[in-house]
User: What shape does this take?
Amino acid sequence: TAGNKIFHFGPCRISMSMTEIRSGFTAIKANIQARDPIRTLSILSHPHSLHKVKSSDRCCITYHLFNFYVDKVFKHCKTEDSYVNRKISSIANSFLSVKRRLGQCHEQNKCVCGQESAEKFKQILANYEGLNVISAAIKSLGELDILLDWME
Amino acid sequence: EDALLPAPQNISILSINMKHFLTWSPVIVEGETVRYSVEFQGEYEREYANESWIPICECSLITATVCNITEDISATVAYNLRVRADVGASRSEWGTLKGFFNRITTSLTPPLMKVIADGYHLLVELEDMGPAFQFCVLYWKKGQESRMQQKVVKEVSSVVHLDTMEAGPDYCVKAQTYVETINRSSSFSQTQCVRAQGGRSMWL
Assistant: This one.
Protein backbone atom coordinates (compact mmCIF):
# COMPACT_ATOMS: atom_id res chain seq x y z
CA THR A 1 0.00 0.00 0.00
CA ALA A 2 1.06 3.63 0.00
CA GLY A 3 3.04 2.47 3.01
CA ASN A 4 2.37 4.95 5.70
CA LYS A 5 4.84 4.10 8.41
CA ILE A 6 4.44 4.93 12.06
CA PHE A 7 7.78 5.80 13.67
CA HIS A 8 8.00 5.56 17.42
CA PHE A 9 10.74 7.76 18.84
CA GLY A 10 10.03 7.15 22.49
CA PRO A 11 6.89 9.17 23.29
CA CYS A 12 7.02 10.85 19.87
CA ARG A 13 4.93 9.01 17.31
CA ILE A 14 5.25 10.11 13.67
CA SER A 15 3.23 8.86 10.70
CA MET A 16 5.08 9.20 7.40
CA SER A 17 4.23 8.07 3.86
CA MET A 18 7.57 6.41 3.39
CA THR A 19 6.65 4.61 0.17
CA GLU A 20 5.61 7.84 -1.53
CA ILE A 21 8.85 9.54 -0.51
CA ARG A 22 10.95 6.56 -1.57
CA SER A 23 9.22 6.26 -4.93
CA GLY A 24 9.71 9.98 -5.54
CA PHE A 25 13.41 9.66 -4.68
CA THR A 26 13.96 6.46 -6.64
CA ALA A 27 12.55 8.20 -9.72
CA ILE A 28 15.29 10.86 -9.62
CA LYS A 29 18.13 9.18 -7.68
CA ALA A 30 20.30 8.36 -10.70
CA ASN A 31 19.76 11.84 -12.18
CA ILE A 32 20.67 13.58 -8.93
CA GLN A 33 23.65 11.38 -8.09
CA ALA A 34 25.00 11.91 -11.61
CA ARG A 35 25.16 15.62 -10.81
CA ASP A 36 27.41 14.95 -7.79
CA PRO A 37 31.02 14.62 -9.00
CA ILE A 38 32.55 14.35 -5.53
CA ARG A 39 32.26 10.66 -4.74
CA THR A 40 34.80 10.57 -1.94
CA LEU A 41 32.83 12.70 0.53
CA SER A 42 29.59 12.11 2.38
CA ILE A 43 27.36 14.62 4.14
CA LEU A 44 25.44 12.16 6.31
CA SER A 45 27.96 9.37 6.81
CA HIS A 46 31.25 11.15 7.49
CA PRO A 47 33.11 10.33 9.72
CA HIS A 48 30.53 8.04 11.33
CA SER A 49 27.41 6.60 9.87
CA LEU A 50 24.04 7.48 11.27
CA HIS A 51 23.85 3.94 12.57
CA LYS A 52 26.19 4.92 15.43
CA VAL A 53 23.49 7.19 16.90
CA LYS A 54 22.09 6.02 20.25
CA SER A 55 18.37 5.24 20.16
CA SER A 56 17.69 7.95 22.71
CA ASP A 57 19.13 10.48 20.27
CA ARG A 58 17.27 9.20 17.19
CA CYS A 59 14.31 11.52 17.53
CA CYS A 60 16.43 14.61 17.87
CA ILE A 61 18.73 13.69 14.99
CA THR A 62 15.69 12.98 12.82
CA TYR A 63 14.15 16.29 13.84
CA HIS A 64 17.36 18.16 12.97
CA LEU A 65 17.77 16.33 9.66
CA PHE A 66 14.23 17.04 8.48
CA ASN A 67 14.73 20.70 9.33
CA PHE A 68 18.07 20.59 7.51
CA TYR A 69 16.55 19.18 4.34
CA VAL A 70 13.56 21.53 4.35
CA ASP A 71 15.41 24.67 5.38
CA LYS A 72 18.68 24.21 3.52
CA VAL A 73 18.76 21.44 0.94
CA PHE A 74 15.70 21.28 -1.32
CA LYS A 75 15.69 24.94 -2.31
CA HIS A 76 19.16 24.63 -3.84
CA CYS A 77 18.32 21.54 -5.90
CA LYS A 78 16.36 23.17 -8.70
CA THR A 79 17.32 21.63 -12.05
CA GLU A 80 16.58 22.29 -15.70
CA ASP A 81 14.55 19.10 -15.74
CA SER A 82 10.86 19.72 -15.02
CA TYR A 83 10.22 16.10 -14.09
CA VAL A 84 13.05 16.11 -11.53
CA ASN A 85 11.79 19.41 -10.12
CA ARG A 86 8.30 17.94 -9.68
CA LYS A 87 9.66 14.95 -7.80
CA ILE A 88 11.80 17.18 -5.58
CA SER A 89 8.67 19.21 -4.82
CA SER A 90 6.82 16.03 -3.91
CA ILE A 91 9.59 14.96 -1.52
CA ALA A 92 9.97 18.46 -0.08
CA ASN A 93 6.26 18.80 0.66
CA SER A 94 6.19 15.37 2.30
CA PHE A 95 9.26 16.32 4.37
CA LEU A 96 7.51 19.53 5.38
CA SER A 97 4.57 17.55 6.79
CA VAL A 98 6.91 15.32 8.81
CA LYS A 99 9.06 18.25 9.93
CA ARG A 100 5.93 19.86 11.40
CA ARG A 101 4.99 16.75 13.33
CA LEU A 102 8.52 16.37 14.64
CA GLY A 103 8.43 20.02 15.60
CA GLN A 104 5.31 19.43 17.66
CA CYS A 105 7.04 16.56 19.46
CA HIS A 106 10.05 18.79 20.08
CA GLU A 107 7.87 21.55 21.51
CA GLN A 108 6.15 19.04 23.78
CA ASN A 109 9.55 17.82 25.00
CA LYS A 110 8.95 14.39 23.46
CA CYS A 111 12.00 14.71 21.25
CA VAL A 112 14.77 15.63 23.62
CA CYS A 113 18.17 16.64 22.27
CA GLY A 114 21.26 15.41 24.06
CA GLN A 115 24.89 16.33 23.70
CA GLU A 116 25.65 13.48 21.32
CA SER A 117 22.90 14.33 18.84
CA ALA A 118 24.00 17.96 18.89
CA GLU A 119 27.57 16.88 18.12
CA LYS A 120 26.44 14.52 15.41
CA PHE A 121 24.31 17.15 13.71
CA LYS A 122 27.08 19.73 14.03
CA GLN A 123 29.32 17.32 12.09
CA ILE A 124 26.71 16.94 9.35
CA LEU A 125 26.42 20.72 9.05
CA ALA A 126 30.21 21.01 8.89
CA ASN A 127 30.28 18.45 6.06
CA TYR A 128 27.56 20.44 4.29
CA GLU A 129 29.23 23.80 4.72
CA GLY A 130 32.54 22.37 3.53
CA LEU A 131 31.19 22.38 -0.02
CA ASN A 132 29.67 25.10 -2.15
CA VAL A 133 25.96 25.34 -1.54
CA ILE A 134 24.72 23.76 -4.78
CA SER A 135 27.14 20.82 -4.59
CA ALA A 136 26.31 20.32 -0.93
CA ALA A 137 22.56 20.41 -1.60
CA ILE A 138 22.74 18.02 -4.54
CA LYS A 139 24.97 15.64 -2.56
CA SER A 140 22.62 15.75 0.41
CA LEU A 141 19.64 15.04 -1.82
CA GLY A 142 21.53 12.19 -3.42
CA GLU A 143 22.08 10.71 0.04
CA LEU A 144 18.39 10.81 0.98
CA ASP A 145 18.16 7.02 0.89
CA ILE A 146 20.86 6.86 3.58
CA LEU A 147 18.48 8.83 5.83
CA LEU A 148 15.42 6.79 4.82
CA ASP A 149 17.26 3.47 5.29
CA TRP A 150 18.49 4.58 8.69
CA MET A 151 15.00 5.64 9.73
CA GLU A 152 13.53 2.31 8.68
CA GLU B 1 2.60 39.15 -25.52
CA ASP B 2 -0.55 41.09 -24.81
CA ALA B 3 -2.89 39.88 -22.09
CA LEU B 4 -6.20 40.62 -23.88
CA LEU B 5 -7.04 36.97 -23.63
CA PRO B 6 -9.27 36.37 -20.58
CA ALA B 7 -7.91 34.10 -17.89
CA PRO B 8 -9.64 30.73 -17.51
CA GLN B 9 -12.59 30.80 -15.08
CA ASN B 10 -14.48 28.34 -12.89
CA ILE B 11 -11.28 26.58 -11.92
CA SER B 12 -12.05 23.68 -9.63
CA ILE B 13 -10.80 20.35 -8.39
CA LEU B 14 -12.50 17.05 -8.88
CA SER B 15 -10.97 14.58 -6.43
CA ILE B 16 -12.34 11.10 -6.00
CA ASN B 17 -10.53 8.17 -4.40
CA MET B 18 -7.18 9.95 -4.37
CA LYS B 19 -7.34 10.79 -8.08
CA HIS B 20 -7.22 14.53 -8.48
CA PHE B 21 -8.23 16.55 -11.56
CA LEU B 22 -8.11 20.27 -12.18
CA THR B 23 -10.91 21.51 -14.44
CA TRP B 24 -11.87 24.94 -15.83
CA SER B 25 -14.25 26.54 -18.27
CA PRO B 26 -13.04 26.91 -21.86
CA VAL B 27 -11.90 30.32 -23.07
CA ILE B 28 -13.80 30.97 -26.29
CA VAL B 29 -12.03 32.74 -29.19
CA GLU B 30 -13.90 32.46 -32.48
CA GLY B 31 -11.99 30.50 -35.12
CA GLU B 32 -8.99 29.93 -32.86
CA THR B 33 -7.61 26.99 -30.92
CA VAL B 34 -7.05 27.95 -27.32
CA ARG B 35 -4.38 26.09 -25.40
CA TYR B 36 -3.90 25.89 -21.64
CA SER B 37 -1.00 25.40 -19.24
CA VAL B 38 -1.18 24.34 -15.60
CA GLU B 39 1.19 24.95 -12.68
CA PHE B 40 1.12 23.92 -9.01
CA GLN B 41 2.65 25.21 -5.78
CA GLY B 42 2.90 23.20 -2.60
CA GLU B 43 3.24 24.51 0.91
CA TYR B 44 6.98 23.96 0.66
CA GLU B 45 7.24 26.23 -2.36
CA ARG B 46 5.17 28.91 -0.65
CA GLU B 47 7.15 28.90 2.56
CA TYR B 48 10.68 27.89 1.55
CA ALA B 49 11.11 28.44 -2.19
CA ASN B 50 10.05 32.02 -2.82
CA GLU B 51 6.46 31.05 -3.65
CA SER B 52 7.72 29.39 -6.82
CA TRP B 53 5.35 27.56 -9.17
CA ILE B 54 6.06 24.28 -10.90
CA PRO B 55 4.75 23.53 -14.39
CA ILE B 56 3.05 20.22 -15.13
CA CYS B 57 4.48 19.32 -18.50
CA GLU B 58 1.68 16.87 -19.34
CA CYS B 59 -0.64 19.88 -19.11
CA SER B 60 1.43 22.43 -21.01
CA LEU B 61 -0.28 23.97 -24.07
CA ILE B 62 -3.10 21.41 -24.04
CA THR B 63 -6.50 21.98 -25.65
CA ALA B 64 -8.42 19.98 -23.04
CA THR B 65 -9.95 21.82 -20.07
CA VAL B 66 -8.96 19.17 -17.55
CA CYS B 67 -5.57 18.14 -16.12
CA ASN B 68 -4.73 15.05 -14.06
CA ILE B 69 -2.68 16.42 -11.18
CA THR B 70 -2.66 13.22 -9.12
CA GLU B 71 1.06 12.55 -9.45
CA ASP B 72 2.01 16.03 -8.29
CA ILE B 73 -0.37 16.17 -5.32
CA SER B 74 1.75 13.65 -3.48
CA ALA B 75 1.91 15.08 0.02
CA THR B 76 -0.81 15.87 2.52
CA VAL B 77 -0.27 19.62 2.44
CA ALA B 78 -2.19 22.57 0.97
CA TYR B 79 -1.59 23.08 -2.74
CA ASN B 80 -2.26 26.07 -4.96
CA LEU B 81 -3.08 25.53 -8.62
CA ARG B 82 -3.32 27.87 -11.59
CA VAL B 83 -4.01 27.73 -15.34
CA ARG B 84 -3.62 30.21 -18.16
CA ALA B 85 -4.63 30.33 -21.83
CA ASP B 86 -2.62 30.86 -25.00
CA VAL B 87 -3.81 31.66 -28.52
CA GLY B 88 -1.02 32.27 -30.97
CA ALA B 89 1.06 35.09 -29.47
CA SER B 90 -1.66 36.08 -27.02
CA ARG B 91 -1.39 34.85 -23.46
CA SER B 92 -3.87 35.34 -20.63
CA GLU B 93 -3.18 36.12 -17.00
CA TRP B 94 -3.16 33.17 -14.65
CA GLY B 95 -6.47 31.96 -13.31
CA THR B 96 -5.91 30.57 -9.83
CA LEU B 97 -7.94 27.99 -7.92
CA LYS B 98 -9.95 29.68 -5.20
CA GLY B 99 -8.56 28.40 -1.93
CA PHE B 100 -6.09 25.59 -1.49
CA PHE B 101 -6.47 21.93 -2.26
CA ASN B 102 -5.38 19.28 0.24
CA ARG B 103 -5.79 15.63 -0.72
CA ILE B 104 -7.21 14.96 2.70
CA THR B 105 -10.52 16.23 1.26
CA THR B 106 -10.75 13.65 -1.51
CA SER B 107 -14.11 11.86 -1.79
CA LEU B 108 -13.85 8.21 -0.85
CA THR B 109 -16.46 5.93 -2.39
CA PRO B 110 -17.33 2.46 -1.14
CA PRO B 111 -15.33 -0.22 -2.99
CA LEU B 112 -16.82 -2.39 -5.70
CA MET B 113 -16.80 -5.94 -4.46
CA LYS B 114 -18.08 -9.35 -5.51
CA VAL B 115 -18.79 -12.02 -2.94
CA ILE B 116 -18.39 -15.63 -4.11
CA ALA B 117 -19.42 -18.89 -2.49
CA ASP B 118 -17.00 -21.40 -3.93
CA GLY B 119 -18.26 -24.63 -2.44
CA TYR B 120 -17.88 -24.03 1.29
CA HIS B 121 -15.40 -21.21 0.82
CA LEU B 122 -16.49 -17.60 1.32
CA LEU B 123 -14.46 -15.44 -1.04
CA VAL B 124 -14.50 -11.75 -1.95
CA GLU B 125 -13.14 -10.02 -5.00
CA LEU B 126 -12.19 -6.36 -4.40
CA GLU B 127 -11.63 -3.56 -6.89
CA ASP B 128 -7.98 -2.55 -7.27
CA MET B 129 -8.07 1.15 -6.39
CA GLY B 130 -4.34 1.81 -6.38
CA PRO B 131 -1.48 1.59 -3.87
CA ALA B 132 -2.91 4.15 -1.47
CA PHE B 133 -5.88 1.89 -0.61
CA GLN B 134 -6.46 -0.78 2.01
CA PHE B 135 -9.79 -2.51 2.67
CA CYS B 136 -11.67 -3.43 5.79
CA VAL B 137 -13.97 -6.39 5.06
CA LEU B 138 -16.67 -7.37 7.55
CA TYR B 139 -18.44 -10.74 7.30
CA TRP B 140 -20.96 -12.54 9.44
CA LYS B 141 -23.58 -15.26 9.49
CA LYS B 142 -26.95 -13.71 8.69
CA GLY B 143 -28.78 -13.04 11.92
CA GLN B 144 -25.59 -13.10 13.96
CA GLU B 145 -24.49 -9.52 13.33
CA SER B 146 -23.10 -9.39 16.84
CA ARG B 147 -20.48 -11.96 15.85
CA MET B 148 -19.24 -9.96 12.91
CA GLN B 149 -15.67 -10.70 11.88
CA GLN B 150 -13.17 -8.37 10.23
CA LYS B 151 -10.37 -8.81 7.76
CA VAL B 152 -7.99 -6.01 6.74
CA VAL B 153 -6.75 -6.37 3.18
CA LYS B 154 -3.60 -4.32 2.55
CA GLU B 155 -2.74 -5.55 -0.92
CA VAL B 156 -5.47 -6.33 -3.41
CA SER B 157 -4.79 -9.76 -4.83
CA SER B 158 -7.29 -11.42 -7.14
CA VAL B 159 -9.53 -13.04 -4.55
CA VAL B 160 -9.52 -12.94 -0.76
CA HIS B 161 -10.56 -15.97 1.26
CA LEU B 162 -12.69 -14.94 4.21
CA ASP B 163 -14.03 -18.07 5.81
CA THR B 164 -15.10 -21.67 5.47
CA MET B 165 -18.89 -21.78 5.57
CA GLU B 166 -21.27 -24.27 7.05
CA ALA B 167 -23.98 -25.60 4.75
CA GLY B 168 -27.34 -23.86 5.23
CA PRO B 169 -27.00 -20.33 6.68
CA ASP B 170 -26.41 -17.23 4.57
CA TYR B 171 -23.14 -15.43 4.96
CA CYS B 172 -23.05 -11.66 4.46
CA VAL B 173 -20.17 -9.37 3.57
CA LYS B 174 -19.56 -5.64 3.31
CA ALA B 175 -16.37 -3.61 2.80
CA GLN B 176 -14.95 -0.12 3.12
CA THR B 177 -11.69 1.43 1.93
CA TYR B 178 -9.04 2.98 4.17
CA VAL B 179 -6.36 5.45 2.99
CA GLU B 180 -3.44 5.53 5.39
CA THR B 181 -1.81 8.68 4.06
CA ILE B 182 -4.86 10.77 4.89
CA ASN B 183 -6.13 8.48 7.68
CA ARG B 184 -9.68 8.32 6.34
CA SER B 185 -12.16 5.59 5.38
CA SER B 186 -15.01 5.37 2.89
CA SER B 187 -18.51 4.38 3.87
CA PHE B 188 -19.38 0.69 3.62
CA SER B 189 -20.44 -0.96 0.40
CA GLN B 190 -23.82 -2.59 0.01
CA THR B 191 -24.04 -5.89 1.89
CA GLN B 192 -23.90 -9.00 -0.27
CA CYS B 193 -24.98 -12.44 1.02
CA VAL B 194 -24.27 -15.91 -0.30
CA ARG B 195 -24.84 -19.43 0.85
CA ALA B 196 -22.73 -22.56 0.55
CA GLN B 197 -24.42 -25.39 -1.29
CA GLY B 198 -22.32 -28.46 -1.64
CA GLY B 199 -19.80 -27.91 -4.38
CA ARG B 200 -21.92 -25.44 -6.43
CA SER B 201 -21.60 -21.64 -6.21
CA MET B 202 -24.75 -20.05 -5.02
CA TRP B 203 -25.77 -16.39 -5.41
CA LEU B 204 -28.58 -14.75 -3.47
Remarks:
- The CA atoms of residues 27 and 124 of chain A lie 25 Å apart.
- The helical segments of chain A are 18-34, 58-73, 82-107, 115-129, 133-142, 144-151.
- The first strand of chain A starts at residue 4 and ends at 9.
